[in-house]
Amino acid sequence: MKNFVLRGNLCTSRTKDRLECIPHGYLVCEGGTSAGMFEELPERFADYPIQDWGDCLILPGLVDLHIHAPQYAFRGTGMDRELLEWLNERAFPEEARYKDLEYAAEAYGIFAENMRASATTRACIFATRHREATELLMDLMEGTGLKTMVGKVNMDRNCPEGLREEGEESLAETRRWIREIKGRYERTDPILTPRFIPACSDAVMRGLGEIQRETGLPVQSHLSENEDEAAWVKELCPWAGCYGEAYDRFGMFGESAPGAGPQTVMAHCVWPAEEEAALLKARGVFVAHCPQSNTNLCSGIAPVREYLDAGIRVGLGTDVAAGCGESVFRAMADAVQVSKLRFKLVRGAGRPLTSAEAFFLGTKGGGAFFGKVGSLEAGYAFDVIVADDRNLARPGGLSVEERLERLIYLSGPEHLRAKYVEGREIFVR
Known about the structure:
Elements: E1 3-15, E2 18-30, E3 33-38, E4 50-60, E5 62-68, H1 83-96, H2 101-117, E6 120-126, H3 131-144, E7 147-151, E8 153-154, H4 167-181, E9 188-190, E10 193-194, H5 202-215, E11 219-223, H6 227-236, H7 243-248, E12 264-268, H8 274-283, E13 286-289, H9 291-296, H10 304-310, E14 313-316, H11 328-345, H12 355-367, E15 384-387, H13 400-410, E16 416-421, E17 424-428
Parallel strand pairs: 1-4, 5-6, 6-7, 7-9, 8-10, 11-12, 12-13, 13-14
Antiparallel strand pairs: 1-2, 2-3, 4-15, 15-16, 16-17
Helix pairs in contact: 2-3, 4-5, 11-12
């Protein structure tokens, strides 16, 4: 159905700290876009079919700005290591296996199906450096009905032989990948993906910058995740004033001026220098905050409150497999919890996040990377989930806001009843 109405308890973020909730309200879909939220259904929509979800919660679909599909197979293991050791001992050996397309098909099939069944409607996804396996992942993600960006990874130094592509080969394979997928997908887009500065030479970064200018593609990578990693970047790029400048020098760090180019999303940003935070804001770079990953790999706590107060754009990432699963609801709860630790442990840290702010990060905040996404407001893409929290029993009633907060902390797959992406029904249970 292109035009239809959902009835239930509506809740969405208006701003980063203000929810709008309409108990037993109406949400109208017209041609894949929200036509608005209403307490009473306007007469002009009277002929639209209504799906009545009773006392269920109707929410914007969740947005994951950072997840590694090839790491999904070993999620929940190797959590006793720090970043660089973990990459060498766990992530890189697993990712090398994706040269085998039979293995890739099985592993990516599990990932794609679990993403389809989750509350996530949009995601930025890392693949590996293997072009054929990356195209296979894109085929599978297209079949889920979700809207995603998938990146073939570039790595030409400081990585195992099975993952290293020499500079010219890496750039040639990236160009070939872009050519081969052009026009193939309706819902799956490419995104340029230098792994991170330690794994990409200046020559590869320069070449990717040229490809970016030719194609206008967005960019995803990692930034200031770990103190040892940041120190390593200073050794590798002594000419850069900060880690972010090592991307910016090659035009891979957001817009050169507001409205002047495609978006960039950088995962983590735990240890920003003052000039780096200023550059994030100036270039309009999105920060993918990955609280569970940063805890598991002993990376630290990103200064998200400070980012929000400074007007820096922030969303959430699950960062599987340093994060243990694909739940963006879990990322919301983790974001609140680690912000409380930062508030207590770091002198001068801003106040902790609220649940409403965490919900904003996982919907409208991260959704802005995809455009008008992440809200039930009129004019936004009709990306919607329906959640039934009746099995979270308690005496007495709760407001819609209180039920949302409880869902953030207690939700599981059993609570999802339906999911829509741009008005398309992904599932109804």
